[in-house]
Amino acid sequence: MITLKNERQLDKMRRAGALLGAVLAELKRRIEPGITTKALDELAERLIRDAGAQPSFQGYRGYPGTICASPDDMVIHGIPDEKPLKEGQILSVDCGLILDGWQSDSAFTAPVGKVSQEAAQLIRVTEECFWLAAAQAKEGNRIGDISWAVQQHAETHGYGVIRDYTGHGIGTQMHEDPSVPNFGRAGRGLRLRAGMTLAIEPMIAAGAWQVSTMHDGWGVVTNDHSLCAHYEHTIAITDGEPEILSRSEEACP
Ligand code: MF3
Ligand code: CO
Question: Which helix (H) or strand (E) holds 199?
Fold first, then answer.
């Protein structure tokens, strides 16, 4: 079922999103050689709880963390651990929270210290995929316009679009209808309406798109072990530019 959010509900999603934006900005600042993903996870949990919110990933289908921390060829759902990050790695961080009953979900990929040009380009193009998709996310357009925007930009660079995981509607639940694939055909699919709230999240591999789940039952890696980047925001559809909800101009409270 697709739910349209009214102004009062959007306001709650704005507040959840602003907090998540501040948390992720703080995590991004901390990413450097030597830090562990467990330390990032603990920091995220503290920032979220101190602000009176709850981490949405913890306990979701038994997930143990506040963030997903997925280095290098790991696509998503990396469980935070005690291994120090090394210069030259890339790290995808995905996090979600619930504030006053409303959810926000966002992810980014960052370099650990200095990285190769190839890695930096993958991160940049994945973010571009998101912004091109967001430009299509307006009333009257269709889900397929979002999907195609991601796919054509990624494939133009010879990258693979992960197909096994998609973006999604979001609201009082982390995952609501509709599903928002990162590949598809322009002009197809559900018509977008003002008040829909979506998590748009391109996951882009430098190589082929096929992936497998690791033995821990969570981590997802590219089969060819090519690097992967992820970029996600929670947005609200309007009759013009989408409102990017999971972003903050302010530092963490
Ligand atoms: N943030 C992911 C998504 O975008 C979900 C995380 S799964 C969890 O759909 F188990 F870690 F919560
Ligand atoms: Co998501």
Answer: strand 197-200
Q: How far does residue 106's CA lie from ligand 2's centre (Å)?
A: 7
Residue 237: CATH number of its domain: 3.90.230.10
Cβ atoms of 216 and 205 closer than 8 Å: no
| Cα separation values, 118 from 72, 88, 115, 206, Å | 12, 11, 8, 8
Q: Which helix (H) or strand (E) holds 45?
A: helix 37-50
Report yes or no: 103 and 22 within 8 Å, Cβ to Cβ.
no
For residues 181, 128, 119, 64, the Cα torsion angle rounded to the nearest 10 degrees is: -50
- Indicate the burial class of 201 (C-beta count within 10 angstroms; 0-12, 13-18, 19 or more): buried
- Could you tell me the pTM of the whole model? 0.98
Looking at the domain assignment, is residue 96 inside a domain? yes
Ligand 1, pocket residues at CB < 6 Å: 57, 60-61, 63, 68, 77, 94, 96, 105, 199, 201
CB 207 within 8 A of CB 223: no
76-129 tens-digit pLDDT: 999 999 999 999 999 999 999 999 999 999 999 999 999 999 999 999 999 999
- 212 part of a folded domain: yes
User: Residues 41-62: pLDDT tens digits?
Assistant: 999 999 999 999 999 999 999 9
